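Thread title: Can someone regenerate the structure for this chain?

I was given the following input by a collaborator and told the matching structure tokens would be attached. They weren't. Posting the sequence so someone can regenerate them.
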Amino acid sequence: MVWHTRRIRQNEILIMKIQVIHNKEAHEAALRELEHLMETDPPAGTKRFAQMELLALVINDYERRHFPIPPPDPIEAIRFRMEQQGMTRRDLEKSLGSRARVSEVLNRRRRLSVPMMRNLHRHLHIPAEILIAEPKPPRAVALKSQKLGIGARQIRPRGKRSGSLLVRPG
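Best answer:
Regenerated them for you:
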């Protein structure tokens, strides 16, 4: 589906023909047209304002279909919400438990449990579908798995402070 816009001047009145955007060129033309409309800053309730809103909806639809944004990583979502609300790790203790548990979760050494997810959803208002998503593997494990040519899910840390890894058979 592609949106296409075209301006036609008739007796100093701007008429816009808005269509579904089907390709990159039409998308770029629609963006230019929206920019032009926004520069004129039409008052709310006018035809130009309605045209600007409709064009923005068409562009949004195209971009949602062609440039989807993947859901965020659960741990990154927690960190982002903490930053937004000016929270510290200590503030997370009421949602996750002890200070050590907060550290383990944020450092990706412990997965979120269902009660933790519920508490985070309730206290931080993070959507549940984000919290239940599979978190990214810890960076060190991901890098070592790439070097070894195996998946990160096949590796698990061995001991709390040990740098060694145990490789699970495939």
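Strands lie at 3-10, 13-20, 155-157, 165-167.
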